[in-house]
Batch of 3 targets.
Target 1
Amino acid sequence: MDLSYTPDEQAFRAEVRSWLETHVPKTPLASFDTEAGFEQHREWEKTLASGNWGMVTWPEAYGGRGCNLIEWLIFEEEYYRAGAPGRVNQNGIFLLGPTLMEYGTPEQKARYLTKMASGEEIWAQGWSEPGAGSDMAAIRSTARREGDEYVINGQKIWSTRAVYADWVFCIFRTDPDSERHKGLSFIFVPLDAPGVTVRPIRQLDGLPGFAEIFFDDVRVPADNLLGDEGQGWRIAMATAGFERGLMLRSPARYKNTAKRLLELYRSRDNDILDLSIEDAVVRCYLDAEAYALSTYQTASRLVAGGSIGAEASCNKIFWSELDVLMHETALRLLGPQAELIDADQPPEAQGWQDGFLFSLAGPIYAGSNEIQRNIIAERMLGMPRA
Amino acid sequence: MDFSFSEEQLEFHNAVASMLRNEVTPERIRARWDTESGADAEVEKQIAEMGIPIMLVPEEQGGLGLTAVDIVLIAEAAGQVALPESIINDALVCAPLLAELALDNERCAQLLPQLLAGKIRLGVGHLINPYINFGADRDWFILPQGDEVHLVARDEVMLTPVGSVDPSRRLVRVDWTASEKSCVASGNYGAKLWRAALNRGALGAAAQLAGLAQGMIERAVNYSMDREQFGKAIGSFQAVKHLMADCATRLEFARPPLYRSAYTVSVAAERADYAISHAKVATGEAALLAARNAMQVHGAMGYTWECDLQIWMKHAWALDKAWGDAGFHKNRVHQWLLREGALTGPEYSFGRQDEELSYA
């Protein structure tokens, strides 16, 4: 155990810091759930890619730097320290990217990963259906093989970023006689293909952060299949592993929120009446730090050749509940001022109300926390299935 | 950056954990409850043979010269079987404190070889702990008078047993009178020694709390698979699963702070307050939640004297309050977070790297 950074790691941190100081936009971008903001964020992805910072853990051949996970954590720490924009392509780079790396053909990797890292193609995720949420194996949308094409029919819902994205990665039923986890396949669909209709859904903050997608005899090349036909469930579970595991929510994000919370607490120290506020602030900070430490521990294990197990489901519960608690605590600190929209807040109070709304989605998306608790109980603790 | 244990550390942990599983069973713990000493001589002998009590004493003074990182998994394993004996405390607090004092105090220097040889037993009092566990079987005591450190013999103190909710503990109150002759350290040096003792004591308690939490989760999970209601194992019900998943999650995020604190104690003991307090708060919460939920999973059986779960629960309740309770440690964290120049950004989980000591 050596919890100090090597000279190489420190040099890497310095390089990241210096690049970000020069390139991070001085004024915040508009929300990527607006049309203008989406394009601003796409431009930012292109800027990142111009310095080969799009996805540092990827091989150089796909626009990455071949970094290990410790270096990725350092990059993320510097990224949040610098206040750099949110990653509009997170479905692509954090979820589909690693999945493609594992299951894609060389042609698919070359075709999709490079444009993903460069920000040219932004991805949405299309798994949930009106009748298939937590019970994802109830998927009914179909992809029928016809010659060199798949013909797709059905509906997806809660597709994050789908309103302005270029592509969606989906799971469809390719075997019409199959049931549950069998007969599903993982297929890419361009969102401008004939027969695709995207209907925006306004989220709690009023912006169209996700959408319904309707497929009406949509034709895509058979090459858009990832892995083998019928392998969709297994591939999706691998993707979900990335989602719940390390990459989707880097600890730096929560350490940064915890730091801001502490600053808010310090700035309002004298007029707080809530007797339990110190306890909440301390807990938020310690839990954010615990998540960071845990991720370093997991990263060390993976760097040494280990693997992620069912304990990854603990991550998702922990960071999502922590995020809610941090924002609830901030709103308690703001008191009656908390309800104001950002435009009417002083600078130090901005972001908390929006962040609070978004934090409420955390315990629901990426597999609800109830599903995660089932996974922990069954796969980590060995308790019997219902 | 490498946040993992070495092969040697893991192998030693496996050897000790396996021995403890065989020798420290609920039956043998209950057998101790009816004895005055509360000790199991055979277990103590085996632990001494593995060198655990002298792990942290420097090699040049006759110890094994190991660090807190080397012992933290051992302490966790002790908690997992709810080991009653005070070995972890002896190894983390008593032996290192006497070894440090022995460097420039003749009386302590004379005692150290006897302690290392297992010929005498040493008890350490601390202002944060009102009582000393297993104090009645000690030959010597190191006791506080303000910042002063005093070394007194058994016949110079009055010991009064006090009962604990945990039948495995053997608490005593120590009444004594400080004298110029008994003082072995004072002033800033004394304060530094007491602070280091508190941090090492809290580390030992935290590690055992993590192990106790693990032990309780395992017991409750096993019970939930045997016990049937409505025609199936109660462990198949989501309400029961989620109680256990919550415990597992709390524990999963208590261990990394625990291991970090062991590292900090090893490399920069004078800056360990924050890391130790984080570990103690996190493991205490994990253990209390595990006690609460494990008992709920056991149903009425969990409320009986017969159910072995009480061995773990009561040990956890006691250790959660030992070496600084949650209030004490949360206050230390609070002070640390509010101090001028606190390193709180996302880039500071491991302190400032450009300083001479690469850890804060």
Target 2
Amino acid sequence: MNKNLYSLTAHELAVGLNKKEIKSEDIYSALDGRIKESDPKVNAYLRPSKGLSSGGDRITSGIPVAIKDNICTKGFHTQCCSKILEGFIPPYDATVIKRIKESGHSCLELKTNMDEFAFGSSTENSSQGPTHNPWDLNCVPGGSSGGSAAAVASDEAIWALGSDTGGSIRQPASFCGVVGLKPTYGRVSRFGLIAFASSLDQIGPITKDVYDNALLLNIISGYDPNDSTSINLPVPDYTRALGKDVKGLKVGVPKEYFIEGLDPEVKAAVEEAINTLRKMGVEFKEVSLRHTEYAVPVYYIIATAEASSNLARFDGVQYGFRSKDANLIDMYKKTRGEGFGEEAKRRIILGTFALSHGYYDAYYLRALKVRTLIKEDFDILFKELDCILTPTSPTAAFKIGEKVKDPLKMYLSDIYTISANLAGIPGISLPCGLTKNGLPIGLQILAPHFQEEKIFSLAYAYEQNTDWHKLKPKLT
Amino acid sequence: MIDKETVEYVANLARIELKKEEANMLSGQLGDILGFIDKLKEVNVDKVLPASHAITVSNVLRGDSPKGPLSAHSVLSNAPLKREKFFLVPKIIE
């Protein structure tokens, strides 16, 4: 274990911990040094100047997990990178945090940067300033879990948790060259995840490789009576899916994902990945997901409608920021007008509009019906297929500032990831190439509900035959 | 395009105070976004049932038994204004 500990994976560190060659404190101090060195460039963490060693009663055990700022951590700041939750310190732990602690691991008290309330695809909508992509500091890391993905990519974290409502784990994983999984809806408890869109949100792991991803999913998965949408199904040991023979697996490639708008370099990298897997005996077939083009519009009605309802609780009464006014209603309005950022206001207002009298049937109800059709597209294909393979995002990371003025353009960068949330199916992104400018390209694998094992088998087989996951960014 | 009055009406429903320039900007942007969303009108949804969840779970019940609640102290620990065991808000009834 003479390598810098921060550059190792969790499964590599676990070997050292088990043999008592290293202690958890060693990992903490390695990360502390790394964060001090790199985070001034990357800005993956909030309040990094605090460092990791300031807390007197800090619990160091196992391998620390970096946590996105929308997951409640008892005693540590959690504010969804929003002014409206400034100063909020949760009095309880999210279920995923409890599970991490129970497994013998711990959480970093520094939270990772994100788009405010997870509203965004670039981590530019943060009250704490944007995160920079470790592969090119002028580019975005993706979003909304951009801080978690950038922290893992830059070795400022060993592994991390993000949340994914329309691609917020997979798209930043793709942009930062790491592995990110959105589990099946209901696989992981949402208790303690500050809600964006309750019918779409899932917490999931962002890691350096597929093995770590399976390990972290093992820890956080499972039924939770505190989340009435979590599903009571046994949790398999996901690491047992790694190394399984993929020969004969049937994988669909949807033609709707390979049309105009897909960057030729991304297309070439995904086709190359298909060739690699084909050589291992995976059987590919072109398929059709007919309603793909409607996924983004459906999403921006359903997600904003749910968000407008969920975010009603931020009114300046119980927690966070409060503006001054003598009158209660005006106090609410000023608090929300000053406390929410631009994108949050845009989405709350769009969602309120979609649910308002006279527009409900035309927008919200219609969107729910088209959601049914999108789900059915997958149901039909999965009768014959094990997995579906696509690019994660139509392009590699874009420049900071490039899309901020054009919300619609920004929304379209989630075009390949949103359907999985609408259908509730699991999906992973793993690195499958670099553009000529040296930016990572991501491969997405989707599977039927609760079949994360198929994803892990296929992703691991691909990873073991390629070296993309071993490349490290230069932080320039 | 949705006009500025509609934006202001909806912002009031959402209890958000908008500055003039915010309302102007949103009127244009929301118009663009809704124009894009109008694409959904192409889809024939007759006889299609709405999906409010990806995986439907129904009648999730639990025993009506008390659990240890958070203490009043910890519940109030984040309150912007409080007195004794209460959240303080501006006066509602004269």
Target 3
Amino acid sequence: MTPMDTNDMDAALDWMDRFQGFRPDGVGLADPAAAARAAAKAGRDAAAGLPFDADPTGFTRLLESLARKDA
Amino acid sequence: MTLAEAAAALKSGAVSSRELTEACLNRMARLDPKLHAVAGLDEADALAQADAADRARAEGGGLGALHGVPLAHKDMYYREGRVSACGSVIRKDFVPDHTATALRRLDAAGALDIARLHMVEFAFGVTGHNAVAGTPRNPWNTDHMTGGSSSGAGAAVAARLCFGALGSDTGGSIRLPAACCGLVGMKPTYGRVSRHGAMPLAHSLDTVGPLTRTVRDNALMMQAIAGFDANDPVTAEVPVGDYLAGLDKDVRGLKVGMPESFFYDGVAPEVRALVDASLKVFEDLGCVVVPVKIPDAVQIMNRLTNLITATEGAAVHTRWMAERAADYGPQTRARLAIGLFTPASLYLRVLTLRKQLTREFCDQVFGRVDALHTPLMVMPVPTLAESDMAANPGFADYLLRIGHNTRPGNFLGLPGLNVPCGFTPDGLPCSFQLMGRPYDEGTLYRLGHAYQQATDWHGRAPEIARQAS
């Protein structure tokens, strides 16, 4: 993959303007975009077999269930 | 004098709160021009708090464990009527109308709150650099970074400007400055300490905890702040143990895990030697060191933590990003902006995945050991110059390297205790991390305290602090 060039960045910011109604000034997206791309792929791959029939929140309750029982 | 020693000296009458507070204020006046750790200070108010504490002690009655001890905190804990700038230009005049639960609990324990401490802009960064409010300096060598985002807290406690400080940790922001500045830092279990009244960065990851010079000091502060709070819906109802009573329990037979993968990836030889030596101390103390296979999924947790942080951070900052983008530093702005592009489907997928991976990690690791022992940073403490990445090419990967061993703990919601274990040849501190199962901060404190009883790294002070004594 080649890094984002100025045209790519303008296109991304145009997208934001169209879908979110604003265009932040002076933002450089190339580097975080590359990192986010890798994170998104990792998340997508790792979650491939997961059943999405559970509430994604409620993390505290999960941690409580994993706490020591002999504390 | 440590926090615990100060509390004991106050109790015995050997020293007054005014004397301790004046000493801290004097050190701030002498050292802060070099360290840039203090964001805000009202000397008259600090002394008034000290005098009130001394009067209360003279009148007798039940006093808290921290009565009269001068503390200072990261400038993101709201106190009603006092500015909380959060390391930013955008909030430089923000005056909250309520007080953070953690501060209220420290108040109830009798602690003084004598200053606001500098931090990374909106707590979004691990090196300590702040392009808009100034960058604190590391007391061990002012050419080196403090780590972040609790940068001022790390510098202030290490330089003895106060006896302890609250930081916050979303990806390593307590543990990294603790490691860089030679301190003990506890990132508690997600939900162990209330975040009510603390500036949010990423609500799924944010935690509140102390930076101190010793494990005992840390346990003292944590004892005061931990526990359920109806104002923070993620706080747990799991009872808080007696951390102090557990400190001196024998550690013989406790199983300390040594990771077989991931946590030593790319570790510098001088860091490895010190961390290995610390593991040997645990063996000598009678702990059983157990090699532990780490689930492969840990490889992606660093990146996924960043994704959650950027996404949730963007939700908090959308309006300011739309209206005041130029008021952010370039790195903060770039990292927040990318969060605006995360698809909702991906975000929900990652949160669901998180629960699955946390269950797997706890089963595989904490089914076998009581604590996992890792390096805290895989590199020696970088200089300010080499870590000054702003939003330049390569910054995102550099930040990933610095938080390599801290972000998995945030993703998994697990407690992590940073303990100093020596100095690299450049004279900068080096640390190991103990990770534990949910709400088992007590075991981490017990192990960390045993280590500090067997070693003397925590007793060393930076030259700049010794000169000011």
